[in-house]
Amino acid sequence: MRLAIEAAEGVRGTTSPNPPVGAVILDAAGELAGIGATQPAGGPHAEVVALRLAGELARGGTAVVTLEPCNHHGRTPPCTDALLAAGIETVYFAVSDPNPVAAGGTAMLETAGVSVHAGLLADDVAAGPLRAWLHWQRTGRSHVTWKFAASLDGRSAASDGTSQWITGPQARARVHAGRAKLDAIVIGTGTVIQDDPWLTARTPDGNLAPHQPLRVVVGTRDIPKTARVLDDAAPTLVLKTRDVAEVIDAMADYPDVLLEGGPTLAGAFLAVQRIDRILAYIAPVLLGTGAAAVENAGVGNIAQALRFRREYVETIGPDVLLSLVPAME
Length: 329
Ligand code: AOF
Ligand code: ZN
What we know:
- A hairpin with a 5-residue loop joins β1 (22-26) and β2 (32-37).
- 25% of the residues lie in helices and 24% in strands.
- By secondary structure, it is of the alpha/beta class.
- It is built from ten helices and 13 strands.
- Zinc ion (ZN) binds next to loops.
């Protein structure tokens, strides 16, 4: 299952609206015979990719999949049929398919005599590669991660507006590598005017990654026609609004969304509880003055404070990365 999770992580961002799924096939002796991941929508599912690699070795073997094998004719035929045709006798999967159209794989396989085991490393998969897609299936809304970098005193820029670089190169490399796995990145018009970012996903050597997330620019201020986010390296959507609900609606087809700033936009999303996770990169730097990472989040007194629960904490070079989820969850 760890191999299947790794395979799924490898295709994150390239499969929407399908989930990024990973599958591993073991032969009858338990040896690795095939590994696969979901291909872009309309292409084969993970099980089919792995079965093709395994060929005849799959007969009498085991399939290990991060999601319950689908049982429907969608854009592709059911994976349950493919598993049976290949002679798979045992299936382990992590998470049940919440999509009512595709569900039912377990019952179908068991009826056909396959031994099916649900729930293997389910928490790792649900918090990992399937996190955004499961949220999107459950709520009908994108999973929104707010990412920010700040000094120890919570500031994202010095008082003259300069903001490069608060965190170290390792944290910045992590942010770039993560972009290629997203469906959309959202920023405010203020950030476009102030920082003129490209918002593209780049490989460590600085080239454009093969998959580029949709760039979404939100706000009522006009941005220059020469702004880098308007170049043709990736698609861009400009939303002339301050209404968070409108932004959420416009992104309904994008399960995994990253909000990158600035402080006003982050505050607006936080005030209406539309942040599902925070990734806070905190640098061992004090600025003393300068813009805060978030403004106007609707908190007037300590009882209204927005509270979060720590998911994990990690050190990245000189900085600390905190992953937080709303405390109510
Ligand atoms: C699997 N393995 O790798 C994926 C699954 O329109 P389709 O035919 O591509 O089906 C999409 C649905 O299939 C999707 O909503 C989800 O329920 C399931 N995705 N299932 O067995 C896979 N990607
Ligand atoms: Zn399938």
